[in-house]
Design brief:
Residues 137-382 form the Saccharopine dehydrogenase-like C-terminal domain. By secondary structure, the protein is an alpha/beta fold. It folds into two domains: 2-134, NAD(P)-binding Rossmann-like Domain (Rossmann fold, 3-Layer(aba) Sandwich); 142-332 and 385-390, 2-Layer Sandwich (Dihydrodipicolinate Reductase, domain 2), CATH 3.30.360.10. The chain contains 14 helices and 18 strands. The longest helix is centred in the last third of the chain and has 18 residues, at 338-355. The chain binds NADPH dihydro-nicotinamide-adenine-dinucleotide phosphate.
Length: 398
């Protein structure tokens, strides 16, 4: 039994609040975010007396500490933006509660994400006897659990990992991002990077792409991106010879993105406009549809999984594990699109792992450092069934 505080009332926050409300383990739920009206709308759609709401600017530790002291949660789920990660971790330490998020910290003025800032909290969480779970969405998140599960059950050594992420959905808008536009565009416009033979190889943004087959979908053009779980997986699975991340984008999306980039709309440095300082990407975010608003009439599905090659008992083995998620089914269940759903469900499964003791250990952890079995067991029943293919045809060469 636990009291949980959810910070962030966007697309993902909606899913997390719905799924927490449906679990008996969570007796009281506080949904807190900058715009309290969004929290209230979500709470009304859930209609449970367990859910209360509050306004919170989570950019300052003092605000967050005050609210935590009033509500007294056991655990905080951070589904606001990566900019708030450190403030929320500090607030958890000050008040003695556990922490979980879905995206690693990045400073607002540098488009750079890495785990170093959050890994630096390890000793403090350890000494306080508290658990912090980092990156517990789908990717990062389930992709790390999939990799840990493969290593635990099917491989002596993992050598090659290709994480493949396809959104074959259609929201009917000319251009929109499926999660926070600012974070999404910062991620995609930075140089690509992958790990090979002990080194990181950097490539110009979106310069390597190829068709990759996805189950029930078929071949889709997929772009090699740098994605945050690569950093922790390479560290935690030291036998990896190569680790890459691929994501699909439509031609329409890439064209819009290139134009926006060419005209300076994706810049994150402030510019002077009519006597005011504005950040072009933040202005663009204000114009684009909110991720949560895409859910109505979203058709098609997502498919995210891991292609893994390695050895077991001296023989080469191939393994593919994936989930497909229908946007319309997610909407019918909780009123969200598939990207929010595939992020929010694992966050709640991770929170349950802390509450039921399976992942409750002092320190700061990436998901692959925790036992994958209880997480995998709950993932399907919670809404994200997964499928395995053993020694099938891999689209990737070694
Ligand atoms: P949204 O933009 O829809 O929602 C973000 C929410 O955070 C909004 O409610 C926003 O409030 C709130 N917020 C922003 N700043 C603050 C602040 N200072 N204090 C309090 N609340 C704040 O984003 P999503 O729901 O799509 O994404 C949420 C998170 O999930 C992001 O960090 C994203 O990177 C991560 N994510 C992770 C994935 C994974 O697989 N691991 C995949 C997709 C997303 P307001 O409405 O006032 O702006």
């Amino acid at each position: 039994m636990a009291r949980v505080m959810i910070v962030g009332a966007g697309g993902v926050g909606n899913v997390v609040a719905h799924k927490c409300a449906a679990r008996a383990e969570f007796t009281d739920i506080l949904l807190a975010s900058r715009s309290v009206d969004k929290c209230e709308k979500i709470a009304a759609s859930i209609g449970s007396p367990k859910v209360t709401t509050a306004a919170l600017d989570a950019d300052t530790v003092a605000n967050t500490v005050k609210l935590i002291e009033e509500f007294k949660p056991d655990l905080l789920i951070n589904v606001a933006l990566p900019y708030q990660d450190l403030v929320l971790m500090d607030a958890c330490l000050q008040t003695g509660i556990h922490y979980l998020d879905t995206a690693n910290y990045e400073p607002i003025d540098v488009a750079k994400f890495e785990y170093s800032w959050q890994w630096a909290y390890r000793d403090r969480f350890k000494n306080a006897g508290l658990t912090a779970i980092l990156g517990c969405g789908f990717d990062p998140g389930v992709t790390g659990v999939f990799s840990a599960y493969a290593l635990k059950h099917y491989f002596d050594e993992i050598h090659y990992l290709d994480i493949i992420d396809c959104n074959d959905g259609n929201h009917g808008k000319s251009f929109a991002t499926n999660f926070n536009p600012e974070i999404n565009i910062r991620e995609i416009t930075q140089p690509g990077r992958y790990f090979e033979n002990g080194e990181w190889v950097e490539i110009p943004a979106l310069s390597i792409h190829r068709p990759i087959p996805y189950p029930e979908i078929g071949d889709r053009e997929s772009y090699l991106l740098y994605h945050e779980e690569l950093e922790s997986l390479v560290k935690n699975i030291p036998t990896l010879k190569r680790a890459r991340f691929w994501m699909t984008f439509s031609e329409n999306y890439i064209t819009h993105l290139k134009v926006l980039e060419n005209i300076g709309m994706t810049r994150i440095d402030p510019i002077e406009y009519q006597g005011q300082q504005i950040v072009p990407l933040q202005f663009l975010k204000a114009l684009l549809p909110e991720p949560a608003s895409l859910a109505t009439n979203y058709t098609g599905q997502t498919s995210i999984g891991c292609h893994i090659t390695g050895i077991k008992d001296g023989k080469e083995k191939k393994y593919y594990v994936y989930n497909n998620c229908q946007h319309a089914a997610a909407y019918k269940e909780v009123g969200s699109q598939g990207i929010s759903y595939t992020t929010g469900v694992p966050a709640v499964v991770g929170a349950l792992m802390i509450v039921n003791g399976n992942w409750k250990k002092p320190g700061v952890f990436n998901v692959e450092e925790c036992d994958p079995d209880p997480f995998m067991e709950l993932l399907g029943p919670m809404g994200l069934p997964w499928h395995e293919v053993f020694d099938g045809v891999s689209p990737f060469e070694n």
